[in-house]
Structure formats: C-alpha cells, structure tokens
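P.,

For your records, the input lines for the assembly:
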Amino acid sequence: MKPLKPGKTFQSKINGVPQGQATLLERPKTVALVPGASPFVKLKLLVGENDTVSVGTPLLQDKRDPKVLFLSPGGGRVAAIRRGARRVVQEVVIDLADDGAHEPALSFAPISPKALKAMSRMEVVNVLKLRGIWPLIRQFPFMDIPQESNGFPMAVVSLHSGERFNPVPSLFLKDQQAAFLHGLTVLQNLADRVVVTAPRSAMAPLKALGLAEQVTHVVQDAYPAGDPGVILYQIRKSAAENASCTMDPQELIAMGHLLSTGNVQCRRIYAVSGTPTRPASHYQTRTGTPVSHLVGPLKQGKGIVTGGVFTGTITSGDAHMGMGITTATVLDGVDTDAFFGFAWPGRRLLSESRTFLSCLESGSLGMDVTLHGEERACINCGWCDKKCPVDLLPQFIMKAASTGEMEEPLALGLLDCTGCGLCTFVCPSKIDLAGILALSKQTCYRERVMP
Amino acid sequence: MNPLRKVFEKTDPYFKPPGQLSRFKGIYTATRTFFFLPSKVTGMAPHVRDHIDLKRFMSFVILALLPVTLFGMFNVGYQYHNGAAGVFEMFYTGARHVLPIIVVSYGVGFFWEILFATLRGHEVTEGFLVTGLLLPLTLPPTIPLWQVALGISFGVVMGKEVFGGTGRNLLNPALTARAFLFFSYPVSMSGNGVWRLPSPTVDAVGGATALSVGGTGGRIQEMVVDAGFSLERLFFGLHPGSIGETSAFLCFLGALFLMVTRVASFRIIIGGIVGVVVTAWGFLYLPGPTDTWFSAGPLFHLFSGGFALGISFMATDPVSAPGTDSGRWIYGFLIGFFTVLLRAVNPAYVEGVMLSILFMNIFAPLIDHISLKITAGRRIPNV
Ligand code: SF4
Ligand code: SF4
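Structure tokens returned:
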C-alpha cells in the first residue's frame, strides 16, 4: 500500500454530500440499457420495440466487433428505443415484467477462479464480450472499448474518484467481497499489473470488510486524485503503459458476480447528492433505473447532473442511469443574473480563486449549474494549469489545437488529459477547455487510430 | 423587483435584432451586464462553474489601483501647493487636473472599444477598464488632454485591436499608448518642467525627478538625497513624477494584494524585484561612474521612477506576459535587469521600465515557446 504523492486538486467544500448509508428503493417500473459508449462506437440494435427480453438478452452489438454485446438489465417488454443526434441509440427502455419474483433472466455457466486461471487471455476476452462486460472496460487514452487483444500493461481500479458526491466504497463493497475478488482475478488475467486505489478516508472501513490488502495505492481524499487517468499519470513509468485500462469498481463487482454465479447482477448503489427532495444519500436499486425514480420528485428550477458534477451531463428525469454511472446530483439550474455581481463580497459563493470572502471561511458551499459570467477570450492568466492534475497547460493545448494541427497538442500531452473538468471550472474567461481538449482527442482518434 | 431590472426588461427588445436600436447592442449589453452579471445554465460538462469571471478579475486590478490613483491626485495637488495647503485643498487641486485625464482616457478608449466590438460582433471586453486607468497613471499631470486622447486611441487600436482584441494582443496597450506619446511628444513627456503643475509658488526646476539627478561628479546616492529625494520620500511618494508612479509603497501594496488574490503572478513581480536588486547590486561592484544611476544601488532603483508601478500593474498584465511559470520568472527578472541597465548606461533616457516591459512583451512568446519545449520534453510521451 503506497501513498501516491499529493497532486493538484479541487479544494472547496461543497454542500449536499450523500449520507454514508444505503437505502433500498422499491423496484422501478422501467429500466434501460444506456450504452453511453464513446463517440467512436457504432451500435447495431438486436431487438425491436415490443419484443420480449430477459435479463441478459443481447440488445446491442458493436458493429466494429460483432462479438461485443450489450445485455439487457431487465426482463420484460422493450417499451421504447430512444435515439439521439444522428440516430445514435441512447436508451433501450424495458418495461419490467410486473411480478418481481418471476422476472425472466438468462443464466450463464459459472467460471470459478481456478478455471479462470487456466483459461487463455483470448478465452476470457471472448467470455467477457459475449456476456456484455467488455464495453465496461475502457482503455486509455481514448477511453474506448478496448480493441487490441494484447494484454493491458496495467489495469487501474479506483474505488473512489475523490469527488465527495461519489458512492462510498465500503457501501457498495459490503457483502460483495467475493464478487470483487473474483473480478480482480479476471483483470489479473487480462493485465500485467492490477492497481487498486482508495482514498485515505476509505481505508478503515475497507479494513473492516477485509479488503484493505487489495488496495495497492492510497490516494488523497480530494477530487480528482482518484481519477483513474490521474493515477495512471502518477504511477506510469514508460510510454507503453499509456495503453492501460480501467473499470468502475461496481462494474468490476458485477463482472465477478456474473462469472462466479452465472447470473447478471442488476443491483447498483447510487449516490444522490445536492438538493434533492429526498435526503441526499446512497440508494440501492436496479441498474439503468429511471433518474426520477432515483432522485425523487423534482422541484421547479432544478437540474440533474448524472455522472459526477465535473464530468457528467445534465439529464432529464425521465432518462435512465447510464452504464457505469453511479451518481445523480440535483442542483439549481435556471438562468439568473446577479445585481452588481462582480462587486459582491461573496461570503457564500463557491470559488477556487481567492477573490471571494468565502476563501477565508471553511464552511461548505452550494453549487449550481450556471456559468457565473460570460465567455471571453483567454487572458493567459494560467489559472487552468494550476488545477490540472496531470500537469498539462490546457491554455496552450487549446491554442495549439485551434490551428487545426495535431503534432503540437500531442507533444504537449493532450492524450494525458483525463477530462476532469477542473480547468474549465476555474477559468475566469469561462472557456470550455475540457470540452475543447476532448474534441481534439476525438479528432486525433479519427485521424490516427480509427481504421 | 429591482427597478433597474424593470427598465432593462422594457428596453431589451429594442436592442435585440430586429429591434430599431440593435446596432447599439454592443454598448447596451456592456451596460446591462455591468449591472446584472448574467449566469446562464451551462451547456457542456463541467456543468458547475466557479463564481469568478473576467469582470471580477479586472475589478480586482482596479481595486488595487485605487489607492495609487487617489494618492496620485493628492500628490499632484501637494506638489502644486508645495505642501502648504490643507489636505482637502491639495486633493481637490490634484483631482481637478487628474480626473479630466482619466475621463478622456476612458471616454475615448471606450469609443474605440465599442466601435471595434460592434464591427467585429463581439462583446466589449473588460480588459479596457484597466488600460483606461493605467495610461493616465503613467502620464505627467501637465499632459494636454488631446494628447491623452491620441495616446489612448493609439494604444487601443494599434496596441490591441489590430491584433484582434483583448487576449490576442502582443503588447500591453497602456504601455503602447505611453510609448507612442513619449516618442511623438517628447516635450510633454520628459524634461524637468512637466512633472508638476506650473505653480506660482515653486520654480520650474523644482519639478525635477530623482532619475534626472546625476552626471555632475560626486556620489550618486548623496546627490539624490541632496536634491531632496531621501529614500523615505521616494518610497512614500511625495515628490514630482508621473501621476501614479511616485508612491512605491502604494504600488507594492497593490502588488501584494494582487499576489495574495492570485490575480497577478507573484513570479513576475518577485522576479522583477530580484532582477533590479541583483543587477543594481552587481553594478555597485563593477567599475563604472559613481555619479550616475549606474552606482545607485538596489533600493534607490526599486523606489524611484516608474518601476514599482510598472512591475506591479503592467508587467503583470497576463495577456502580454508569458503563460508558463518558468517563463514568468525569466520575464520578470529580465524586466528588472533591463530597467536598471537602461538607467545605468543611458543618462539621456533614464526611465527604463516602460521600454523594458514593452521589450519583454515582444519576447514573451519566445520565452513561452522555449519553456514549453522543455516541459514537453520532460513528459512521458503519449502519442
Ligand atoms: S486539461 Fe483540464 S480536463 Fe484535462 S486533465 Fe487537465 S484540468 Fe482536467
Ligand atoms: S484559465 Fe482561462 S483565461 Fe486563464 S489561461 Fe486558462 S484558458 Fe486562459
């Protein structure tokens, strides 16, 4: 267990942190498969509306590799297929069969840890592809579904990103130790080295669960110290390790569960934070549950961000929770303006800068999903690079990328960007640096990697 | 509801296309957002954002400049009355002469800002709030107002707008304006007669600045003190000079405020001070004339002329400074170095700080380029 050296992190304290207990929610009426895959994946639909499906029925297929399947998280009737821009499938909504006890489910042959060790890497990969797990393993630097079948130099499993709104590891690991360990065995088969990280504050509860030994590195209790990309940046020794992979810890548990029991695990622990109408806390419910089922009724003027406040997207209540996404945050979300906004002392205003009185106090502050200002040209203040956890100079990468050129951004480390969003957060000119960098990463992928 | 908001809501439709006044949208939006800082729902991750914005960022620079400006007004009056008047009377006299300069600078500058914003279809940017105040502070109180207008026009148009506006300019616009005035109208900008208002009680020679002393044999430090410029007087600022430059104390106080709030880079300011101290101290040990500023030593260099104002508020203009941390150290240091060098080797042109900053502005991109190459070389490649 090695502590990683402290890096640049988000410092302010925020309101609405979920309580440290998990409440079981009643069964939702619908669930959905929300692939939320990288923009490079082209999906083929394998079912139509009104088809009857079981838990584990393949619903989608990756056109690049037909063996990569996405399985149904529920048993019942396909109620709707929602498509987004360019007709990309966003959600396959399933009306759950009424009777919870008799929900149809497929089962697969269990694979014991011993059998797993005897299998070749190719065999394991094929099993994972056919059982819908492969899309949940993401490969750096593009966070794409892994393509090559060579071993990964490293697999990073971060139990907590450091963002206070993420589920607490001890809650989702409780009673799941065996599945977790089984999942790690799978990763050990796939990668030369498996790195498991947890923030310092999670270590005591993990010890109580008997899992402390599994943690290879202890990270700071701050965002984004536990971001897998940041961890990779901190511990990699050579360029070869850039092709490492990562997996959400709850998906790792689900993988272990599926292989050890043969059944798809449909439970997840979600963290609901911010200012929802129900208490901000952890809730246990189905994978792909409706967002409104999770956060409860929504008051006027609120917005929901799923997938982390810094990296997630604003989602409507009738959408469903995406694969690998475990947080929903309810925040104020209406256009406002502030009378003489630039001159307020700002005792209660959240800022990472030292230009508000709040920087002298230690209380926690509220967030909302508005811009607090207007977009301007970059003034070269350098605040963005003071926050970048992987030591990039986002402003220079942005400027280099705006010329349409690729060599310079790459040389400056573009592909190391983990998309943590802190540079955009602090920019006084409100420049969408993280978005611009993500776009140039995509361009880079299209130009250099895509066949 | 805020009555002002009611007014704006009534007038909004006229300024939005196709309203009759949509041509003046630029100035209208600038005014509206000055009173009501907009905060729209974000469209892209991260959806949460910091409360800091450019208006507040620039307000902090203005805030740091306020004591300097107010003291400048007082000092102009103090020099006029030679200190023999009530505090309010002196301040009033100064303000009467300084305020028109500031008003002209802002008025004419904003005209150009709005013109370009309207032509180019972008927003009026906040950077000018600082430029418009900085230029007057670098000028002698006797400057004719039409020259102020000409100077700020040159600074805004040639120093900024031809490059594409705030954020794309190579040079600091206020310094560009000042350099333009200095080279076009040297009579208004140099000599011993311009630094205090013509006054019935003081003769013109009394308006000399500390930097113009020297070259007549003897030891420079004693000569400066004999001419009435003790270190203490130079530090606190009750002596003739440009409106805002005389009080090194208040300039450094502003610098401290900007460093603590991180609005200005401490690397540039500390680098500059170190540059002056090291260079001036080094010159003390080199063989050279003892009766010129060559041998003045670190403290006199730090506290006289426009160094304190320049390093605190102009060198730290982030747009025209390097964007890398190591670059900022080098940039600051070299500004200090060149300031002392110019004062030491060129008795005809003793005020070196403004030119040093402009000169280093030009080199900022090169410094960045080199330091980026070095940092990029240190990374584990990921291509
Ligand atoms: S560039 Fe921005 S989004 Fe990318 S890692 Fe750095 S701070 Fe995060
Ligand atoms: S924080 Fe924004 S304005 Fe400042 S350097 Fe970065 S991109 Fe430019």
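Two observations worth noting. The first strand of chain B starts at residue 36 and ends at 39. Residues 49-371 of chain B form one domain.

Regards
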